[in-house]
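To assess whether ligand presence alters the predicted conformation, the chain was also submitted together with flavin-adenine dinucleotide. Input:
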Amino acid sequence: MMNENSQAPVVIIGTGLSGYSLAREVRKLDKDIPLLLVTADDGASYSKPMLSTGFTKEKTADALAMADAQKMADQLNLQVRTFAQVTAIDGDAHCIHLGDESIAYHKLVLAWGADVIRLQLDGDATDRVYSINDLMDYRSFREAVDGHQRVAILGAGLIGCEFANDLRNGGFEVDVIAPSDTVLPGLLPPQAAAAVQRGLTDGGVRFHLGKAATAVNGDAAGVSLTLDDGSTLAADIVISAVGLRPRTELAAKAGLEVGRGIKVNRQLQTSVADIYAMGDCAEVEGHVLLYVLPLMASARALAKTLTSEPTAVSYGSMPVLIKTPSCPTVVSPPAAGAQGEWQEEVDGNSVRALFRAPDNTLLGFAVTGDYVAEKQALSREVPAILP
Ligand SMILES: Cc1cc2nc3c(=O)[nH]c(=O)nc-3n(C[C@H](O)[C@H](O)[C@H](O)COP(=O)(O)OP(=O)(O)OC[C@H]3O[C@@H](n4cnc5c(N)ncnc54)[C@H](O)[C@@H]3O)c2cc1C
């Protein structure tokens, strides 16, 4: 169908790092193209990775907000609609719906991120279980934890481990509960994971691995978590950090092709004309990468596509820095299904883990402790994710 809305703005849904990075890149190329950002939250600009270093860097939620929505609108010459939840997309009519209201778009970009996975927990204190996936969540958590001492974290993945380290640095007692046998399962090979766990344990984090929480009950004295081995654990407040899932539901309802994320090609175009997706919600040629570097590369490419010439995104190697200062760690995971095996060299908490193909090509690495110094050299050796 022809795009009838050529006078309508480019509409970006989401004001996370994806939405604002894209707007910034567009403005470098075109000062005037009408841009409207629509967001379910307050539209504050902030760097999400900083949420798990708030105590270490002594930054409150307010200090983490770099600019409010109005300031961003002024700086970038665009409009921002805050607290505006998009409820449906109509690709044929080129409009989005916010309940009864509809807004026309010329081109639409879905930059609406990923949702936290919520555990089904029994008990009467599930309202004391916090998920932290944006600045507003972080503000609520900081208010709730103020004056308390004991935090239990569900999940020992990247976010769980980073919060564990940060909360220890803030002087809290920290218990981490996870069903996996190691920390950072699926991300780090065994010796590297063990080094991170030792580093955090030496820093005072208590791990309860191989166990899952089933219920959380509370009273004035705090909460009691029931674990699936029948034991209980006392805390004041609970963080759930058991994973994220790209937001695909509204896209699927609108007839867009979805897989693990919203499927897009190298030009970040979905299966429906004039609709693009990027950041945590997108699956770019099979890659779902919930990290900053891929979204920055996507913002640069998509800005060109939207303003001048269709441009494919490229991803180089994109190592991930895990913010656990108790055991500094960098990982560049091999592609899913890559043939090869991990070889690990261990020197105390310093581990050099290399994932090599049968022909000895380096396909991935994880380094901890002193070996982190090798991250740049190793990054140059591993293949690009999307050349
Ligand atoms: C604690 C933490 C630490 C991290 N640390 C790192 C790190 O060190 N390095 C790294 O590379 N990555 C890190 N990440 C991941 C990285 O922060 C994310 O990949 C990135 O911020 C995602 O940005 P986004 O804009 O795609 O999504 P989001 O930031 O989730 O933004 C989504 C936006 O869409 C809006 N929205 C959603 N649904 C709707 C709707 N229906 N209608 C209107 N608006 C909607 C939301 O309100 C929000 O504005 C971390 C993540 C977390 C949680």
